[in-house]
Amino acid sequence: MSAAREDSPSASPPPLVRLRGIAKNYGNVAAVRPLDLDIHSGDFYALLGPSGCGKTTLLRIIGGFTEPSAGTVEIDGLDVTRLGPEQRPTNMVFQGYGLFPHMTVRQNIAYGLRIGHVDRAEIRERVGAIIGLVRLEQLADRRPDALSGGQQQRVALARALIMRPRVLLLDEPLAALDLQLRKAMQEELRRIHQSIGGTFVFVTHDQGEAMALANRIAVMDAGVCVQEGGPEDIYAAPKTRFISTFIGDANVLPGRRQGGRVALDAGATFPDAGADEAIVVVVRPEAIALGRDRPSDLAGAIRLTGRLADSVFLGPYVKYRVTLENGAEVVVHSQDVRLRHELVPGERVQVSWGLAQQRVLVS
Amino acid sequence: MTSRFAQAVWVLFGVAAVTFMLSPLILLVLFSFGQNSLASFPMRGLTVDWYGRLFANADFRVALKNSAVISVSVGAVSVIVGNLAAFAIARLRRRHAGPLLAAATLPLMMPPLVLALALLSAYSALGLSLGPSTVVPGQVVFIQPFVILVVYARMADFDETLLDSARDLGASPLQAFFTVTLPIIRPTVIGAALIAMALSLDEFIITYYTIGGGLTLPTLIWGMLRRSVDPSINALATLILCATVGATMLAIRATRYRS
After folding, report:
1. Cα–Cα distance between B169 and A168 in angstroms, integer?
2. Is the CB of residue A97 less than 8 Å away from at least one CB of chain B?
3. For residues B78 and B245, what is the distance between their CA atoms, to the nearest angstrom?
4. C-alpha–C-alpha distance, residues A288 and A298, integer Å
5. pLDDT: is A247 or B258 the higher one?
6. What is the pLDDT of residues B92-112, one digit of tens each?
7. In angstroms, rounded to a whole number, what is the distance separating the alpha carbons of residues A105 and A170?
8. In this predicted structure, what is the pLDDT of residue B1?
């Protein structure tokens, strides 16, 4: 999908967008702490984080709508830090879409080209092509107030894409849409990205959306980029407790590491190299096996007993909640629906997983 | 049932109160069409002679011209100045906008008489002779706050993202203003202009003191009242009423319209 990335580091081309030492302060509040970021050509890049983490500020800094308090922004080898949005090779799809209410869909899309004094025949041709790309042919002569949310979003997308930006910026593009529409639009965005092969950078607080769309994710928290990488890497190897619970569901079990062995508060022990300190063990609900409290049932290295609190059928899997002997709760996702009928709430059960399925992180 | 009776009484009371307040106007218009030379009942018949006599009056034609020129000038100046002020204030945060808005609308709280006298002494100190041109600044001071308030209210509601989008697509701030902001707020601006013109047309106190020997429609009424009390005054007043009410109704429709 990403044509620009090679596996060997020496062959990878320079990044399209380089942020160096970018920081933004509002009075005493540091919205973004000094950070470096690289975005490569062809990336579908996500800035992911909870509200107030600085992701939208960062996006606006890339687009030129917010001036950074420190640092430089380089796009395609050019230092654009002091340039306004109208001078940068970027275009943004805003959260409220910002469609001009007094113009039709066609006029909205053509606006940027009209301002740029592009010749009328070329405008007509390019507008026609992009309307085809986003599949808005039937609605081209309507006004924005006669369109649904999803349709408006496609107009905003077309209006930005027609400018052929080097980087397309999207501010929470799917936030205002309902679940079904959101899934459909995710498909649309992926299709359009693959079809034009551009570089997209989007902001979202929805980790599912980030993982569905992006080939690289930067997880942000309180103005800092806490982890950056592909979705599989971040999901399998989160660096901090915050990341492991923010991306995907996770069970977090506290314990202590002493002399090369970890003892969980909940009871089990296992070997683990590292300093003597308080740690947490993070394990994904789908990596845990659940069974009756019988010696031969489960085979993982870590085995804990407890009582089944409840089970909920969610469609693709069953969500079990188990209360361990020390009071801690463990959530298990299992596709074994039969088990649900066999187990009774309150029954003694065992949960188990292997050392490969867990991560030990500093508390 | 007492509650329904009470409700009927209240409705009746409302109708009576409104009738009481509107009756002078209704009678005014009525007698402009009456054949009596004295406005009294019973009315002898209907005629438009008084309107005819009004239009034949040379003073009327002068006053009409002056009123038209002054109200258009005042409308134009207040709209330009008021819009500029409203845009500037709307861009500030609420905290700063409040005091500035209060300062801009201070003239509304001044008694027009005081304002008129202040202007009069200023003009005589500057040695300017009085006429329609000295009326315009005085009216603008009093009328422009209305424009500022109307346009500010519209701009405070204005979606900033639209301007961000325009800039993102390559428009300079000035281009964004003419291609995005102005077309969208045009009904409000037109409405504000009409309000300004209606207020100017009706204005008496400041005009009376700063126009010197000149005439506008309101000061003409005042002059006619002192000389002869015939129903051509009613005719004049009815015309002014229609113009002001008409302009204001158009303005209200325009400023409420959401494009």
Report:
1. 12
2. yes
3. 20
4. 10
5. A247
6. 877 888 898 889 888 888 888
7. 19
8. 62
* Residues A162-183 pLDDT 10s: 999 999 999 998 887 888 888 8
Instruction: State the best of B158, B163, B165 to mutate against chain A, taking most chain A CBs within 10 Å.
Output: B165
CA torsion angle A294 A296 A297 A299 (round to 10): 130
Could you tell me the two tokens for A308? 């089944």
Q: What is the number of other CB atoms lying within 10 angstroms of the CB of residue B102? A: 10
Q: Is the ipTM of this complex over 0.95?
A: no
Domain limits, chain A: 9-245, 249-362
Where do the DSSP E strands lie in A9-153? 17-26, 29-39, 44-48, 70-75, 78-79, 90-93
Could you give the domains of chain B? 53-256 (1.10.3720.10)
CA B30 to chain A, closest CA, distance in angstroms equals 45
Q: Which CATH number fits domain A249-362: 2.40.50.100, 2.40.40.10, 3.40.50.620, 3.20.20.80?
A: 2.40.50.100
Q: Which CATH number is associated with domain A9-245?
A: 3.40.50.300
Q: How close A85 comes to chain B (CA, Å)?
A: 5
**How far is Cα of residue A241 from the mean position of the Cα atoms in its chain?**
17
Q: How far apart are CA B120 and CA B128, in angstroms?
A: 10
DSSP states along A300-311: -SEEEEEEEEEE
